[in-house]
Amino acid sequence: TFGINLKNVPKTVKKCCSSCRMSVTLDIILRKPDKVYHEGESVIGTIAIFTPSDLRHDGINLSMDGSVNLQLSSKNVGIIEAFYNAVKPIPLISAFCEVSSAGRIPAGHTNIPFELPLQPRPNRSLHETYHGVFINISYSLKCDVKRSFLSKGLQKTQQFFVQYAPKPTQPLHPVSFTMSPTSVTSKSGGVPDFYIRGHLDSTSCSVLRPFTGHIILERCEMAVRSIELQLVRVETCGCAEGYAKDGKYFNDSLHLQFTLSSRHRNSKHPDRGRRCPT
């Protein structure tokens, strides 16, 4: 639990103008424009309140929450319901800050700065923000301005993102592969004779870095029109009750999709190596 004494917190108060909306507004403005943070950093920002007249309140609170949730979607109907009730939301972080006790906010714009450390709960670790088909990992700030039962309270939620801190040296997991007519399947049949070999620099890499490797076409009895490298997402979720899976899954760590065509037997461009973006 964290507390902020408004007597020691500087405020920025501006007089409202005729162009301002004549209603009370509440907003949470983060210092980082991209809203991306790493574990151990502090989430710094400002609570911005505008009121056309003096505003009495019963307290201002700021909370930080992060959790892992299992969610249902149209893609997992009949698959994931079996263990949906068995998996409860996992809280990763929870912090509470009493910004102000009951008092009055003057008319105009009031900015209240805040700073909350991004530290996980005991025996927990922060996972990266993820919005998938089955799993949802999210982090958010929520500000509540309490008012009397005759007046509606104010509430604002601001989502932010958590990423793993980049490591200076990350172990590589290289892998080599080969492809031939015996290792691929074709719906149309009649796969021409070819042989491709390649190398991936690492099967585990950061999303902030390029996915690198090389492909060598050793031979092909037909002219090659294009070679496409496809990165396929596979999301698997499960517990003792069963598993749910979304996306195409391949036994090999690499899936190559390529098109062979005999319409163009002469290529105008030489073979070029190209780095694939993440």
TrEMBL record:
<dbReference type="GO" id="GO:0006886">
    <property type="term" value="P:intracellular protein transport"/>
</dbReference>
<dbReference type="Pfam" id="PF03643">
    <property type="entry name" value="Vps26"/>
</dbReference>
<dbReference type="InterPro" id="IPR014752">
    <property type="entry name" value="Arrestin-like_C"/>
</dbReference>
<dbReference type="GO" id="GO:0005768">
    <property type="term" value="C:endosome"/>
</dbReference>
<comment type="similarity">
    <text>Belongs to the VPS26 family.</text>
</comment>
<comment type="function">
    <text>Component of the commander complex that is essential for endosomal recycling of transmembrane cargos; the commander complex is composed of the CCC subcomplex and the retriever subcomplex. Component of the retriever complex, which is a heterotrimeric complex related to retromer cargo-selective complex (CSC) and essential for retromer-independent retrieval and recycling of numerous cargos such as integrin alpha-5/beta-1 (ITGA5:ITGB1). The recruitment of the retriever complex to the endosomal membrane involves CCC and WASH complexes.</text>
</comment>
<keyword id="KW-0967">Endosome</keyword>
<dbReference type="InterPro" id="IPR028934">
    <property type="entry name" value="Vps26-related"/>
</dbReference>
<protein>
    <recommendedName>
        <fullName>Vacuolar protein sorting-associated protein 26C</fullName>
    </recommendedName>
</protein>
<comment type="subunit">
    <text>Component of the commander complex that is essential for endosomal recycling of transmembrane cargos; the commander complex is composed of the CCC subcomplex and the retriever subcomplex. Component of the heterotrimeric retriever complex consisting of VPS26C, VPS29 and VPS35L; within the complex interacts with VPS35L. Interacts with SNX17 (via C-terminus); the interaction is direct and associates SNX17 with the retriever complex. Interacts with SNX31; the interaction is direct.</text>
</comment>
<dbReference type="InterPro" id="IPR014756">
    <property type="entry name" value="Ig_E-set"/>
</dbReference>
